[in-house]
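Record pair follows.
FIRST:
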Amino acid sequence: MLRYRENPHDLLHRLDAMFKAGRKHPTGIMLAMPIDVVLTMQYLLRRGLRVPEDVSIVACNSDYYFDLIQPKITHYIYPEKKFSQRLARYLLQLLHNGSVPAVRHLILTELHAGESLAFVDGMPARTKTKR
């Protein structure tokens, strides 16, 4: 699940809908907002579900506390240095030339492997995390 939401209650209602008794629940959740990670982990804990054994969690953003909580959250890191360098280069080009070519430039994020992502059986042993 990846979803922008206006308030925390929307997230909790969506989690309730996904984890209704008698239904097969999702095995993984992708969250956009760092606070949603905390809310989701609390929600799963109250329901007796374990991360990552029962449900994997991956965050789209980075936050300083992702490595402090247990299990450490698997998340994406935005390469700020690369973005800053590229932005500075385009600003200098704009100052010198008066324009910048209107083309798309992709800046890829990096996956920071935490402990909140379970691996599927059959994956090579070297990529599995120790539990």
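SECOND:
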Amino acid sequence: MLTNHKLLLDNTCPMCTIYGNCFIRLAYVDKTTLSSYQHIEEEYSEHIDMELAQSKIALYDTESRSSLYGIDAILHIIEIKHKYIAQILRLPMIYWILEILYSFISYNRKIIVRPSLALNGRNCNPPLIHGYRWAYLVITALLTGLILKLYYSPIFMGLGWSINPWTEYIICFAQVIFQYISFRYFFKETPLHYLGHMSTVSMIGGTLLLPMLLLNSMITLPIFLLLGYFFVVVGIMLTEHIIRSTRLGLGWTMTLSWITFRTLILIILIVSL
């Protein structure tokens, strides 16, 4: 077990809390090792790169007063019990992939979870890295489009309708463009924070469709049940969008824009079928 260390975690990030608790349960570290970035004592913070620690967890050695960050910190914790696994993960190609994956999650973690209601202690928001943010928008649009395509296929087949296989992908990317333009029209700041939250809402909706999609692959469900469940998911998405927009200080503007886009798409689909 790792002792005489401080592992700085963002106490407003559920993901950080989860893997921090996992380290404790697996006996990699003790309870005194986990520390809140927001409230870490100055006697430790003055020896840590607190700006870097906003993006990558910091593991501070209280004896040597040295720190490791991000993947290096995690691998150092792992090798306490699994030396050979840590050595494999440090192989250049594997380490490079892990570093990219870690950065992708870390720089986007504040748009994966809901915005915090209020700042308590130090600000632990990572900087906006445009490449990772746009990668998140593209990946979530592709995944959501794929899930919607699979979900809608049996519905359209049952109704005897045909639809372009690329339609759902086009809709998902068109929504990003539509909301980007709307945001730039109404607000002055960068739209990438909002678009990240909007994409997470879409991904939440896609994820909620997966159980029904899996069930329909085993038994043929009635079309009205598939449609009814879909509208329930839309209601959940709308609620989540309202909550996130409110916490971002955007009011109802972007939610109304979101509803407008969805309504226009529905009209276009009905007219074209």
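COMMENT: The radius of gyration is 22 Å.
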